[in-house]
Fold:
Amino acid sequence: MKYQVLGTTMQCLSVDLEPGEKIYTESGAMAWMSSNIKMDTNFKGGLLKSFARAITGESLTFTFYEATGSTGNIGFVTAAPGKILPIMVQPGTEYICQKGSFLCAQPSVELSIHFNRKLGAGFFGGEGFILQKLTGQGMAFVEIDGEVLEKQLAPGETILVDTGHVAMFEATVSMDIQMVKGVKNVIFGGEGLFLTTLRGPGRVWVQTLTLAGLAGRLRPLLGSSKSSSDGGMLNSVSDLFND
Structure:
C-alpha cells in the first residue's frame, strides 16, 4: 500500500492499493475511488463489539475497500479543517484518540472503544468517558482538527492541556483533570474551570483547533447573517405590497 497526504488546511488522503489489498473506514469518509475498487459494508470484530460501538454513537458497521485485478486508487477526506496523521501501529503499542478522529486503516489494525476510567477526566476532560483505541499492526490514519503538535513526555513529566485540545496519546500516558488554580483565573481567565493533565511516559498529540470553539466563534456571525437576510426579505415583501 502506498499513500499520499495532499493539501494544507483541508487535507485529503490518496491511497494506492495493490490487487487484494484492503482498507476500511467509517461511513462518509470516502471521496473518490477507481472503478476496480470493490466496496463491502460489513461488521468488524463481531456483533457484540459492533453493537457496543453503536450504543456509544459510533458506526455500527465499517466499509471495506479492496483493489481487484490491478492497482486501484481511493481518496479519503477530513470532516473539518486540519491534518491527516499517519500512524504505524505496532504490536504492544496502543493509541488513544479523541472520539470521531479515526479516518481509515488497514484491516490488521483494530479500532475499539476506550473508556476513561477516571470519573473527573470523564466529566470534565473535554472528551467524555468514551474515546477510540487503535491496536494491532499496520497503517492507520487519524484526522486532527487544525494544526498538530507532537510532544514526547518523559516518565513522570506532566503537561496541562486546555480541554478539547487533546487529540491523541499513547496508552502509556495517564490522563486526568485538575481545577484551575486561583479565583481570578477561574472568573476572568476565560479558560474554564478545568485543565487536562497528561503524565508520561509516552507521546502526546495536541490539536490547535476545537470544533466547539470554532462553532462558538461562528455563532454570532450566523445569527447576524440570518437577521440581515430575514430583514432583507421582509423589506422586499413590504415594497411589493406598497407597489
Q: What stands out?
A: The longest strand covers residues 82-89.
